[in-house]
Design goal:
21 strands; globular; about 775 residues; single chain; Arc Repressor Mutant, subunit A; DNA polymerase, domain 1; about 45% helix
Length: about 775
């Protein structure tokens, strides 16, 4: 049987499964099992646990295995010298590793297939053995075996973009009263196609990758047919046809057909074979195939069955004549196509059919692509709010789409206990951050907050909020996180004051609740006026510095909302002469592959990796006020910048731009410094700065250690060593000039004392 794939809104997928169970019967429907296998790290940990090895020892072995795709224990031993030595010299570790190697790749546990559902005319247990995963029956055979048995497998897939469309329509209806009927929208709006042709497709289904954006800029689609073709062509294999397709679309007079009979079939795609349906139509119109036989040809071609295809070549060209001379299949020659042309056409079909796409599939995708583009074009604020809500747990995506909002002129408002819902929402012409996007604030708590707000009105103070929520499960951690994120700024208190006083308010309410036994009430509670509940008991306090507030926002939400830390360093960055990340990423930029650039910003992400030479390198993301860019820090630079990469201060990266088609630009770092250190290092240092180091009486023996430290920070700034015991000073030679970074100064001060280190300007 064919398997049938259907996409549904992610949040309503279970409703579809419940529906087929009701329709066909509980015994006739089952989900499909999958088996998880032992990976390298998991095999180590499980083997160690069974052998009663201490967790810390097992963890140390597991962490020596690089976190890479398709990593095996054997491969890890050959890559990591420390792991190899441990295996050769530690008997206990060797035993764990040997057992882990034996079980690596074997089934470890079973789970449920993400999409597959089997539907039978009779009870599923009549065909396959069953197991149970909670209340739902699951097959004990994997999907391939289920298909081979001839059962019907439905793939009920959850598609995030359908959820985005639903949420956008719901918000439009709720906030404006307008009902948008996507079934009857206009599919020929020039503005929508102009937006797509300009590559403004962030959030648009199937069209938001860098490669697809570039393709759309070349293709300049003008109708839905162009988008259908674009989705079909932008895949491995068909991509080879893209230049021909784009050229023929721009110059239709250049389109050539191998035979006139191909024109009505291929004219819609400018002479290029794009769809499987076109192959089926070619064999039907040129050789007289039936629908069923045409589909068999398509299937044989797509599965690369060469013996079947060569047999079909003869049928396609010459047709089929039975023993009595009756023509069962005309063939191309009988229909007026010469043998050579028929051969050429069949060769073209074979080459193409290996990667041909189903047009009906592409058309469905194109409709969803147009619908998302339509909503972005006509209702940008609502669409972007729904889009952001769909990636609430993925910080990188949230950051990317927020930057896209900025380009569209849509501002982002901070979360508010009185205005926000769980996800992002529209507040006039801006987007309000959702409460569920704050760390440690769950959807259940947000639901309670919103319902209480709807019941009793907005919260007037923190005391009012705490009183009205005290019967709920309101934990201190969630409250603290909401304060740090700025969700309670509406109470008119500084975040410093709220963080200092919220625990006392909650503790007081808890004590009061404990003291009031069931059936009893405090006398004061009857005497107090109801408005006392709304009194604000938290004393005022001076607010934190802006950088601390921003750091808290970044920690709680993954982004900065009240501002950006680089704002304070903007003047210094401009003085240093940095390139902005959005200029590097802009395709219209004058910056080209291999150019040297300098960027300054905060390190927003970092991933260290062990190389084959047993040294470390790092992938970092540097974020300025205009965007972010990935930076590769190779081992030599990593060793010098190791401490800087962990600092909570802006860095300055100088390096070479690496621009590859279909991938975002990267920077290969030549140096990574704290931005505060750059001014001293970047100028002609011999004239600008000089570092003086004093070795006090009896401290001459520390000279070797001093030289070891400065050896890690070589640069352009001269160095002078003064020995107090002899009273003599020595200027270091050029090869011992340094970069006077904060890390260097801290190390030297820790060794010799702060009064022995002095960095001064020279005339």
């Amino acid at each position: 049987m064919p398997d049938i794939d259907v996409d549904f809104c992610i949040e309503r997928r279970q409703e579809v499964i419940d529906y087929v169970i009701r329709k066909y019967g509980k015994d006739n429907v089952a989900q499909i099992i999958t088996f998880g296998t032992f990976g390298a790290k998991q095999a180590i940990r499980d083997s160690a646990r069974v052998l009663s090895m201490p967790y810390a020892d097992a963890d140390r072995i597991a962490k020596l295995i690089p976190q890479e795709l398709d990593m095996t224990i054997e491969k890890a031993i050959s890559m990591n010298r420390e792991l190899k030595e441990l295996y050769e010299n530690d008997a206990a570790a060797a035993k764990v590793i040997d057992i882990a190697k034996a079980i690596e790749g074997m089934p470890r546990h079973s789970s449920t297939h993400a999409a597959g559902v089997v539907i039978c005319g009779e009870p599923v247990s009549d065909y396959v053995p069953l197991s149970h995963n909670g209340e739902m029956a699951i097959t004990q055979f994997e999907k391939d075996t289920v298909e081979e048995l001839g059962l019907l497998k439905m793939d009920f897939l959850g598609l995030r973009n359908l959820t985005i469309i639903r949420d956008t329509l719901d918000m439009i209806k709720r906030d404006t009263g307008e009902t948008v009927d996507l079934v009857n929208i206009d599919y020929d709006i020039p503005g929508v196609y102009k937006m797509i042709s300009e590559g403004d497709t962030d959030g648009v289904f199937q069209l938001e990758s860098a490669g697809m954006k570039n393709f759309m800029k070349e293709l300049k689609p003008q109708n839905l047919e162009d988008i259908i073709a674009g989705i079909s062509l932008f895949r491995p294999g068909p991509m080879d046809e893209i230049p021909t397709y784009v050229d023929n679309k721009s110059h239709p007079e250049n389109v050539r057909y191998k035979h006139e009979k191909l024109k009505p079939i291929l004219d819609v795609t400018y002479g290029c074979m794009v769809y499987q349906e076109q192959i089926m139509q070619i064999v039907r119109d040129l050789a007289g195939y039936s629908f069923g036989r045409a589909d068999l040809v398509r299937r044989a071609m797509s599965k690369k069955k060469m013996d079947v295809m060569e047999k079909e070549r003869d049928f396609f060209i010459n047709g089929i004549v039975d023993e009595n001379g009756t023509v069962e299949l005309d063939g191309a020659v009988r229909r007026g196509v010469d043998k050579k042309t028929a051969n050429d056409i069949f060769d073209g079909m074979i080459d193409f059919a290996k990667y041909a796409f189903n047009k009906s599939h592409a058309a469905c995708y194109a409709v969803v692509a147009y619908e998302t583009a339509y909503l972005k074009y006509k209702y940008p604020t609502f669409f972007m709010a729904a889009l952001l809500s769909s990636v609430l747990s993925t910080t990188d995506k949230v950051t990317q789409y927020i930057m896209d909002c900025g380009k569209m002129g849509i501002s982002l408002l901070p979360p508010s206990i009185n205005e926000s819902i769980d996800g992002f929402s529209v507040d006039e012409h801006s987007i309000r951050f959702g409460l569920a996007g704050i760390a440690n604030v769950g959807f259940n708590l947000v639901d309670v907050i919103v319902k209480e707000r709807e019941r009793g009105g907005k919260f007037t103070s923190f005391d009012d909020f705490a009183n009205r929520m005290q019967v709920r499960e309101l934990n201190k951690r969630a409250v603290e996180c909401m304060i740090k994120a700025g969700a309670m700024d509406c109470f008119g208190k500084s975040r410093a004051a709220l963080l200092d006083g919220y625990a006392d308010v909650l503790e007081g309410l808890a004590n009061s609740k404990r003291n009031n036994l069931e059936g009893q009430g405090s006398l004061l509670s009857f005497l107090n006026d109801e408005e006392d509940i709304h009194e604000d008991s938290i004393p005022d306090k001076e607010e934190f510095p802006l950088l601390k507030l921003l750091a808290m926002e970044k920690e709680m939400m993954g982004i900065y909302i009240s501002g950006h830390p680089m704002q304070e360093y903007k003047e210094l960055a401009e003085k240093v002469g940095v390139d902005y990340t959005n200029d590097i990423s802009d395709e219209e930029s004058k910056i080209r592959d291999g150019d040297t650039v300098t960027v300054a910003g905060m390190i927003s992400a970092r991933k260290d990796k062990l190389t084959k030479n047993n040294t470390y390198m790092s992938y970092i993301s540097v974020e300025d006020m205009y965007g972010s860019i990935e930076v590769l820090v190779f081992p030599k630079i990593f060793e010098k910048a190791r401490n800087i990469l962990g600092a909570d201060e802006p860095v300055c990266v100088k390096g070479r731009v690496d621009i590859k088609e279909d991938y975002p630009p990267k920077i290969i770092a030549d140096s990574v410094l704290l931005l505060s250190d750059v001014e001293a290092v970047s100028a002609p240092a011999e004239e600008k700065m000089k570092l003086y180091i004093k070795l006090k009486l009896g401290k001459d023996f520390l000279l070797d250690r001093v030289m070891e430290i400065i050896g890690k920070y070589k640069g352009n700034v001269p160095l002078c060593l003064y020995f107090e015991e002899s009273g003599r000073a020595y200027n270091a030679n050029r090869e011992n000039f340094i970069e006077p970074t904060q890390e260097l100064l801290k190390e030297l001060a820790g060794l010799l004392g702060e009064d022995c280190i002095k960095l001064t300007k020279t005339e």
